[in-house]
Amino acid sequence: ATYQRALAGNPHDDIALALLLHQQGHICDWDGMAAYAHRVPELGTDMQAVAPWGMLALEDSPARHRLRSELGAAARFGMAQRTVVARPAARPEKLKIGYFTSDIYYHATMFLLGRMVELHDRDRFEVHAFSYGAEDSSAYRPIFDRFHDVHRMKDEEVAALARRAGLDIAIDLKGHTKDGRLGILSFGAAPVQMSYLGYPGTSGADFIDYMIADRVAVPDAQRAHYTESMIYLPGSYQVNDNRRAIANVNFTRAQMGLPEDAFVFACFNNSYKITAEEFDIWMRLLDKVEGSVLWLYKANPWAEVNLRREAEKRGVDPARIIFAEGMPVEQHLARQHLADLFLDTFNVNAHTTASDALWGGLPVLTRMGEGFAARVAGSLLHAVGLPELATESSDAYEAMALELATDRAKITYLKERLATNRLTTLLFDTDAFVRHIEAGYEAAYDRFFNGEAPADIEISA
Questions:
Q1: What sign results for the dihedral spanned by CA atoms 372, 430, 205, 208?
Q2: Residue 174: per-residue pLDDT
Q3: What is the average pLDDT across 276-296?
Q4: Which of 42, 66, 142, 272 could bond to 225 as cystine, CB 3.0-4.6 Å?
């Protein structure tokens, strides 16, 4: 309502419109969004910067996502002066690397990253945390060599602290997401600065030298839409923890409100990622697969009402959509085996949520898009040895879902393959992943030390 009032006063307020559309996405108000669909391509690409994060789900256009990030970075950080850190006389025997984030607590970032931090080679790296979140970080502090609580410091002060600590590589884990502080790196926290994990797209900032990626997430055809040099990792760019606990609880379908013998399609993605395009397909699947149900994440009451209404508009009984209550992640991992197939969203895929599903033994079906956010699940599926589940079109996605839902032998075979692959492929080989990303860190630093400009780096398996 606040954004609508702002637009009533100034119909050309792009910031208010972008925020309105993002909130409408959260509550699945697709009719409301449709009224502004014609304006989406122009938002944040010309004169007025908008929040890049909220635009990712509105369209899959890496070219325009880059423009939005560049405009946003210039508007927010254009006056900052990055302090240049001189090359040392000798290459450090041990590189000091720093992770900058607000998410060092019980958060998806640490579910993925925590084990990697523990496994860093302390003979070659000294690992710092620069934590600017107010949440309780005590559970994760011991895994870092040095922990800097900087949430009360200004961006320029944090950058100066990092330089005094002798940081060699600064790794931003938030980008343009909520509570991100890219501004710290705009002042120069280290001679080599990187973007990783948190924001699935380019920062558009000239002070970010590298982005951690892989060849599936950023194919050659889309490379021009990223301002950073790339460090391409083998397998997937996304780190995973192969020691994540799955609760020792044998949930039943009855406990989750699911029918015992039905085929259960699931999507535990946040509601803003769901668009009418995927939902049309999902409803056709429910229509064709007798007795099947759709198990969704219970995000907010408005989304529930709207999604049930959208099902009814498409001739599907709203009771066939079942909403999963929130629960601790260890328990959520344990309940996922009750589903048969995870149906991914398109413009913004499942990211940590896809890793959760695969680690919990639930196959994920995705459709590959063009931008980073629309290719993450495909990256994970290739790395876990199930590339056939990364389809190339909406038609192929729908056909594959229908085939798997009507052939129990095939879905059983996929689950068996996943059970084997999750422990034998790169996706959940945390030790190998750490070796690969460390090789990327060292290669990037060595370019700086040798007086070479940042350039794309390929790390071999």
A1: negative
A2: 98
A3: 98
A4: 66
